[in-house]
Amino acid sequence: MLRRILVTFAALCALGAAGFAAWLGYRHLRPEPAATSSAAEEQLTAAATPDGKIIVGDRAQHNLGIVSKAIETGEFWRAVTVPGMIVDRPGMSDREVVASVEGVINRILHVPGDLVEPGESLFTLRLASESLQQSQAELFKTGENLKIAEARRERLAQAGEGIPQARLIEAESEIARLKVAAQGYRQELRNRGLSDEEIGGIERGKLLSELQVTAPPLVFAGEESPTGEMLGFELQELLVDLGQQVRAGEPLCRLANHQLLAIEGRAFRDETSKLQQSLEKGWPVEVDFQEGESSGWPTAENELPIRYIDNTIDPETRTFGFRLPLENQHRVVVQGGRARLLWRFRPGQKVLLRVRVERMDGVFTLPADAVVAEGAENYVFTQNVNTFQRVSVRVLHRDRDRVVLANDGALETYERDGKQRTIAAVTLTAAAQLNRMTKTKSDGLPPGYHIHADGSLHKNEDEGR
Question: How confident is the model over 288-310, as pLDDT tens digits?
């Protein structure tokens, strides 16, 4: 029995030793793990193939922000760029409210930034004008005398033939004289800013000791008017203090309505013909408001017509001005019961104006980052998954934001909807970085990778085993 137990124990020990020896052998003979994908991708950022193409990994493309798409021909307007600034429309945007009579500021009903509607009260004036007080008294007195004269005429008319006709004519003449006098007093009070309702109260004996100063009506000059909702005024500046005595005609505040503005451009004399051509042919001017994409406002109309060209040149700057109409965008914010206006465009804001000069048809228009210049050559890059091919192109026009290319066959195209569209996707960004990669010394693909016919990069199946 003891012998059988010993034999079994010895057999188990032998099996354990054999298993341990096999495990050690496996660890010794197992190959080292393959390089990580991250390390491999680092080798792909500037890999060049023998035929001049470059291979860019997915992560490297993401880091470079590469965007590619097929492009098609279209029209492009060659333009000259001139500086501009948003300005008030003369005689329309700003309004001054003045005191119509002499008085003392008793109440100020609004503060700068408030939105006020036409006809809304702005100030309360305690009257200090003797002439106004006298006009009120004379109107009331004339009205009472008119009532007495009319009653007298009625009595004379009822007396019949026993009353001389001359007395009746005299009474009617007195009534006519009093009516003319009353009409003159009413007009004088209207000129001082009193409403018909207030004048009617004076005739009934309610003489005024205070006067309400209201916002003027909102009137736009000419045929110009906003296409959307008509807004009121914004109280831009207070010009008086509480308790201050003011004279007739003295400014009290300044109101502003920036719903309709203008853009004033400045051009030199040699650009006169270009501006006149745009005005005569009705070509709009493209406006660059120089705002970020995250401004949060709706898309604004950026092609505006020229409405006016100055006929004089500034002797100091040697430039002349021209104006474009601009309709503003707004938001109304209510805080503490007071409405506030937030305007998108403000007077003094700088803009760039592109005045059209020449129309180009059947050309490719790309962002400036899509084309790289190298000596006398210009290049774009076409993308096929991970493979990028440099293509020499002919540039017709270049400005700060865009480059115009000729459709001369350098990029293979096909016709679609009457336009020529490129077969390959053209890279719209990072052309300069891709061009530097073509200068990188490389023996082609990194070890362990291969490229498919569609241009995609793949790791060898046996790599890492």
Answer: 998 876 667 888 888 999 988 99
